[in-house]
Amino acid sequence: MSSRYEKDRWAVSIGIDSADAVENLRNSGSGPDAEECPDALSQPLKLPRGVRAFKAGLCAAVVLCLAASVVHVVLVFLHVAPANTVSKRYGPQVNAWVFPFFEQNWRLFAPDPEAVNRQILARTAHTGSDGSVQVSPWFDLTAVDRSAVEHHVFPSHTAQNMLRRAWAGYVDSHGGDDKARTERALMMQKYLTNIAADRVAARNGGTFDFVQLRVVTLSVAEPGTRVRSRPPTPVENRLLPWWKVTRHAK
Asked: What's the alpha-carbon Rg for the chain, to the nearest Å?
Protein backbone atom coordinates (compact mmCIF):
# COMPACT_ATOMS: atom_id res chain seq x y z
CA MET A 1 0.00 0.00 0.00
CA SER A 2 2.78 2.39 0.84
CA SER A 3 4.48 2.00 -2.59
CA ARG A 4 1.20 2.55 -4.39
CA TYR A 5 0.64 5.65 -2.30
CA GLU A 6 4.06 7.00 -3.20
CA LYS A 7 3.43 6.49 -6.93
CA ASP A 8 0.13 8.34 -6.77
CA ARG A 9 1.79 11.21 -4.93
CA TRP A 10 4.62 11.43 -7.49
CA ALA A 11 2.13 11.50 -10.36
CA VAL A 12 0.14 14.27 -8.77
CA SER A 13 3.28 16.36 -8.23
CA ILE A 14 4.34 15.94 -11.88
CA GLY A 15 0.91 16.99 -13.05
CA ILE A 16 1.07 20.10 -10.90
CA ASP A 17 4.53 21.00 -12.21
CA SER A 18 3.40 20.50 -15.82
CA ALA A 19 0.35 22.64 -15.29
CA ASP A 20 2.48 25.37 -13.76
CA ALA A 21 4.90 25.26 -16.74
CA VAL A 22 2.06 25.55 -19.26
CA GLU A 23 0.58 28.45 -17.32
CA ASN A 24 3.94 30.23 -17.23
CA LEU A 25 4.34 29.87 -21.00
CA ARG A 26 0.88 31.29 -21.57
CA ASN A 27 1.61 34.28 -19.37
CA SER A 28 4.99 34.92 -20.96
CA GLY A 29 3.57 35.74 -24.42
CA SER A 30 4.85 33.89 -27.51
CA GLY A 31 7.95 32.37 -26.01
CA PRO A 32 11.45 33.82 -26.09
CA ASP A 33 11.94 37.50 -26.82
CA ALA A 34 12.18 38.49 -30.49
CA GLU A 35 15.49 40.20 -29.80
CA GLU A 36 17.02 36.85 -28.79
CA CYS A 37 16.02 35.15 -32.14
CA PRO A 38 16.14 37.75 -34.94
CA ASP A 39 14.43 36.78 -38.17
CA ALA A 40 17.10 36.67 -40.88
CA LEU A 41 14.52 36.74 -43.67
CA SER A 42 13.11 40.06 -42.48
CA GLN A 43 16.42 41.80 -43.28
CA PRO A 44 16.80 43.02 -46.94
CA LEU A 45 19.55 41.28 -48.94
CA LYS A 46 22.21 43.81 -49.90
CA LEU A 47 24.15 43.12 -53.09
CA PRO A 48 27.80 44.07 -53.40
CA ARG A 49 28.52 47.51 -54.80
CA GLY A 50 30.11 46.09 -57.96
CA VAL A 51 27.05 43.97 -58.73
CA ARG A 52 24.71 46.93 -58.21
CA ALA A 53 26.83 49.09 -60.53
CA PHE A 54 26.86 46.37 -63.20
CA LYS A 55 23.07 45.99 -63.07
CA ALA A 56 22.59 49.74 -63.31
CA GLY A 57 24.97 49.98 -66.27
CA LEU A 58 23.26 47.04 -68.01
CA CYS A 59 19.83 48.62 -67.59
CA ALA A 60 21.13 51.95 -68.93
CA ALA A 61 22.70 50.23 -71.96
CA VAL A 62 19.46 48.40 -72.75
CA VAL A 63 17.47 51.63 -72.52
CA LEU A 64 19.95 53.45 -74.78
CA CYS A 65 19.85 50.64 -77.37
CA LEU A 66 16.07 50.66 -77.42
CA ALA A 67 15.97 54.44 -77.75
CA ALA A 68 18.55 54.40 -80.57
CA SER A 69 16.59 51.67 -82.39
CA VAL A 70 13.37 53.65 -82.18
CA VAL A 71 15.08 56.83 -83.42
CA HIS A 72 16.73 54.92 -86.29
CA VAL A 73 13.46 53.35 -87.43
CA VAL A 74 11.66 56.70 -87.31
CA LEU A 75 14.38 58.53 -89.29
CA VAL A 76 14.60 55.81 -91.96
CA PHE A 77 10.82 55.79 -92.25
CA LEU A 78 10.78 59.56 -92.79
CA HIS A 79 13.51 59.12 -95.42
CA VAL A 80 11.66 56.52 -97.50
CA ALA A 81 8.14 57.85 -96.92
CA PRO A 82 6.51 60.27 -99.37
CA ALA A 83 7.22 63.93 -98.76
CA ASN A 84 5.27 65.26 -95.81
CA THR A 85 5.38 68.15 -93.35
CA VAL A 86 7.66 66.37 -90.88
CA SER A 87 10.15 65.12 -93.48
CA LYS A 88 10.35 68.56 -95.08
CA ARG A 89 10.92 70.31 -91.77
CA TYR A 90 13.55 67.90 -90.50
CA GLY A 91 15.03 66.95 -93.88
CA PRO A 92 18.65 67.98 -93.03
CA GLN A 93 18.61 66.00 -89.78
CA VAL A 94 17.15 62.94 -91.51
CA ASN A 95 19.70 63.06 -94.34
CA ALA A 96 22.57 63.56 -91.89
CA TRP A 97 21.57 60.33 -90.15
CA VAL A 98 20.75 58.23 -93.22
CA PHE A 99 23.69 59.14 -95.46
CA PRO A 100 26.01 57.51 -96.22
CA PHE A 101 25.74 54.37 -94.06
CA PHE A 102 21.96 53.82 -94.01
CA GLU A 103 21.15 54.81 -97.56
CA GLN A 104 17.87 53.47 -98.94
CA ASN A 105 17.61 53.37 -102.73
CA TRP A 106 13.83 53.05 -102.74
CA ARG A 107 10.73 54.94 -101.72
CA LEU A 108 7.89 53.70 -99.57
CA PHE A 109 4.85 52.67 -101.64
CA ALA A 110 6.68 53.62 -104.86
CA PRO A 111 9.98 51.75 -105.41
CA ASP A 112 12.21 53.35 -108.02
CA PRO A 113 14.76 50.79 -109.20
CA GLU A 114 17.62 51.75 -111.47
CA ALA A 115 16.62 51.88 -115.13
CA VAL A 116 20.18 52.22 -116.49
CA ASN A 117 23.64 50.85 -115.83
CA ARG A 118 26.60 53.21 -115.69
CA GLN A 119 30.15 52.34 -116.53
CA ILE A 120 32.69 54.78 -115.09
CA LEU A 121 36.16 54.74 -116.59
CA ALA A 122 39.23 56.78 -115.74
CA ARG A 123 42.56 57.58 -117.34
CA THR A 124 45.53 59.58 -116.14
CA ALA A 125 48.10 61.94 -117.62
CA HIS A 126 51.65 62.73 -116.60
CA THR A 127 53.70 65.69 -117.75
CA GLY A 128 57.39 64.94 -118.09
CA SER A 129 60.27 67.29 -117.36
CA ASP A 130 60.69 67.89 -121.10
CA GLY A 131 57.06 68.95 -121.46
CA SER A 132 55.83 65.72 -123.00
CA VAL A 133 52.47 64.35 -121.87
CA GLN A 134 51.88 60.64 -121.35
CA VAL A 135 48.25 59.48 -121.25
CA SER A 136 47.31 56.08 -119.84
CA PRO A 137 44.67 53.73 -121.29
CA TRP A 138 41.15 53.78 -119.88
CA PHE A 139 40.70 51.92 -116.60
CA ASP A 140 37.23 50.53 -115.77
CA LEU A 141 36.43 51.56 -112.19
CA THR A 142 32.94 50.04 -112.29
CA ALA A 143 34.27 46.63 -113.28
CA VAL A 144 36.49 46.60 -110.19
CA ASP A 145 33.50 47.32 -107.95
CA ARG A 146 31.39 44.72 -109.74
CA SER A 147 34.02 42.03 -109.27
CA ALA A 148 34.23 42.89 -105.57
CA VAL A 149 30.46 42.44 -105.17
CA GLU A 150 29.75 39.37 -107.31
CA HIS A 151 29.97 35.98 -105.58
CA HIS A 152 30.45 37.63 -102.18
CA VAL A 153 27.94 36.87 -99.46
CA PHE A 154 28.73 40.05 -97.53
CA PRO A 155 30.14 42.62 -99.99
CA SER A 156 31.49 45.84 -98.57
CA HIS A 157 29.47 49.03 -98.57
CA THR A 158 32.41 50.79 -100.26
CA ALA A 159 32.34 48.50 -103.27
CA GLN A 160 28.59 48.78 -103.64
CA ASN A 161 27.91 52.47 -103.18
CA MET A 162 30.94 54.76 -102.91
CA LEU A 163 31.61 55.33 -106.61
CA ARG A 164 27.92 55.23 -107.54
CA ARG A 165 26.93 57.74 -104.89
CA ALA A 166 29.85 60.00 -105.75
CA TRP A 167 28.71 60.15 -109.36
CA ALA A 168 25.07 60.73 -108.38
CA GLY A 169 26.15 63.61 -106.13
CA TYR A 170 28.26 65.07 -108.92
CA VAL A 171 25.37 64.99 -111.39
CA ASP A 172 22.95 66.52 -108.88
CA SER A 173 25.31 69.40 -108.12
CA HIS A 174 26.68 70.06 -111.62
CA GLY A 175 23.91 69.24 -114.04
CA GLY A 176 25.11 68.58 -117.55
CA ASP A 177 27.79 71.25 -118.13
CA ASP A 178 30.47 70.11 -115.60
CA LYS A 179 30.73 73.61 -114.14
CA ALA A 180 30.88 73.92 -110.36
CA ARG A 181 28.81 76.90 -109.26
CA THR A 182 28.41 76.10 -105.56
CA GLU A 183 30.55 74.93 -102.68
CA ARG A 184 28.76 71.58 -102.73
CA ALA A 185 29.56 71.17 -106.44
CA LEU A 186 33.25 71.79 -105.77
CA MET A 187 33.17 69.33 -102.89
CA MET A 188 31.53 66.59 -104.98
CA GLN A 189 33.98 67.19 -107.82
CA LYS A 190 36.92 66.86 -105.44
CA TYR A 191 35.38 63.77 -103.87
CA LEU A 192 34.90 62.05 -107.23
CA THR A 193 38.40 63.02 -108.36
CA ASN A 194 40.02 61.61 -105.24
CA ILE A 195 38.17 58.30 -105.54
CA ALA A 196 39.26 57.86 -109.14
CA ALA A 197 42.87 58.88 -108.45
CA ASP A 198 43.23 56.61 -105.44
CA ARG A 199 41.80 53.58 -107.24
CA VAL A 200 43.88 54.07 -110.36
CA ALA A 201 47.02 54.48 -108.26
CA ALA A 202 46.22 51.34 -106.26
CA ARG A 203 45.64 49.22 -109.39
CA ASN A 204 47.96 50.55 -112.07
CA GLY A 205 50.59 52.45 -110.14
CA GLY A 206 52.76 54.90 -112.02
CA THR A 207 53.00 58.65 -111.68
CA PHE A 208 50.33 61.08 -112.86
CA ASP A 209 49.22 64.66 -112.34
CA PHE A 210 45.79 64.69 -114.03
CA VAL A 211 42.79 62.39 -114.14
CA GLN A 212 39.86 62.26 -116.53
CA LEU A 213 36.58 60.34 -116.26
CA ARG A 214 34.26 58.96 -118.91
CA VAL A 215 30.80 57.72 -118.01
CA VAL A 216 28.93 55.39 -120.35
CA THR A 217 25.22 54.98 -119.59
CA LEU A 218 23.56 51.79 -120.82
CA SER A 219 19.88 50.93 -120.65
CA VAL A 220 18.84 47.88 -118.63
CA ALA A 221 17.80 45.00 -120.87
CA GLU A 222 14.20 43.84 -120.70
CA PRO A 223 13.45 40.58 -118.88
CA GLY A 224 13.97 37.55 -121.07
CA THR A 225 16.35 39.28 -123.46
CA ARG A 226 19.45 37.32 -124.33
CA VAL A 227 22.54 39.05 -123.01
CA ARG A 228 24.72 38.29 -126.04
CA SER A 229 22.05 38.56 -128.70
CA ARG A 230 22.77 42.23 -129.29
CA PRO A 231 25.24 44.58 -127.60
CA PRO A 232 23.52 47.34 -125.62
CA THR A 233 23.44 50.76 -127.21
CA PRO A 234 24.85 53.53 -125.00
CA VAL A 235 22.25 56.03 -123.91
CA GLU A 236 24.93 58.57 -123.02
CA ASN A 237 28.70 58.73 -123.38
CA ARG A 238 29.86 61.61 -121.21
CA LEU A 239 33.47 62.75 -121.20
CA LEU A 240 34.49 64.90 -118.26
CA PRO A 241 37.33 67.47 -118.37
CA TRP A 242 40.85 66.83 -117.09
CA TRP A 243 41.22 67.53 -113.37
CA LYS A 244 44.41 68.36 -111.56
CA VAL A 245 45.24 66.01 -108.70
CA THR A 246 47.97 65.74 -106.14
CA ARG A 247 50.86 63.92 -107.77
CA HIS A 248 50.52 60.17 -107.32
CA ALA A 249 53.59 58.03 -107.51
CA LYS A 250 53.92 54.34 -106.75
From this structure: 42
